[in-house]
Design goal:
mainly alpha, 14 helices, disordered C terminus
Length: 323
Amino acid sequence: MSEAAARRGASGFLVTLLAAATYSTVGSTSKLAGIQGMGPIGYLEWRAIAAVLALGVMIAVGVRLGWVRLPPLDAVPARERRALVLAGIAHMVITVAMIVAFSRMSIAVAMIVFYAAPAIVTILSFVLHGERPSRTRVGSLALAFAGLLLVVAAPMAGAGAVAIDPLGLGLAAFAAVLQAVYMLVAARGYPSVPAIGAVFVLLAVAIPGNLVAALLFGALPEVAAPVGDPSLLVWAILGGVLGAAIPTTSLQHGMRLLGAGRASILMMVEPFFAATYAFLFLGEVLGPVQVLGGAMVIGAGMLLQVGDRGAATRPAAAAPAGG
């Protein structure tokens, strides 16, 4: 591996790890918002609004300082524009599906089902892009999934029967498949758009999408609640900046550097970070088995970084400056 490729891989590893560490704040901020009185759809809507506003400010500053260069709309191929909108819809549907799944069944079981996504990415990468999985990638995937099981299943030990809801299970499985498709599209689908600009569109799509979900689930009053009580917005704003704007941009950049398969395996450390935040801010117990599981997932990502020679280590096209 050349020095440039090694630096690219190290950067991809770090920004993807940052994405996992910040995405995983959503569980705690959404729960704290719920304790304060904000419903889940209301939280998602105001989280998306806060994220889009934060990204808008960052883009404006970046353009002003010359750090971000946004291409004219007519310079972006129509195929990329369609892929970007479809990715935004998929991103929004995944979030809503998992929120409903969490409300109907054990969060641990839903997460185990959802994190079948990296295996689906590996299979689809081979079918669609000819990326033959190396033994290192397959071994890393197995190690990461074993670590994930320790992280999310340990709290269920001795807890008695675990409720399995057919609808919740189906939604989690659907979200896993859609997440795999989303990551493959996001990694290659719109290379001419800088990562931060792409994420702005992705999260902007969620704003009207969440309103549709609120209408379908009868949750419009919870979306309107913060208008009368702005204090409800505290955790949604934190979730928007720390749990949406930063991680979605980081993951977009990480997928361009690592590819969807490697990034998706590294993202499996997210439940470990989520459990850590729940321990720190909500007093939920984080046991040694969960710590071991988190270390296994991080170790799998490091194994991929230093040992994977069979998978592609470059994106389909170079990311533009500022991306």
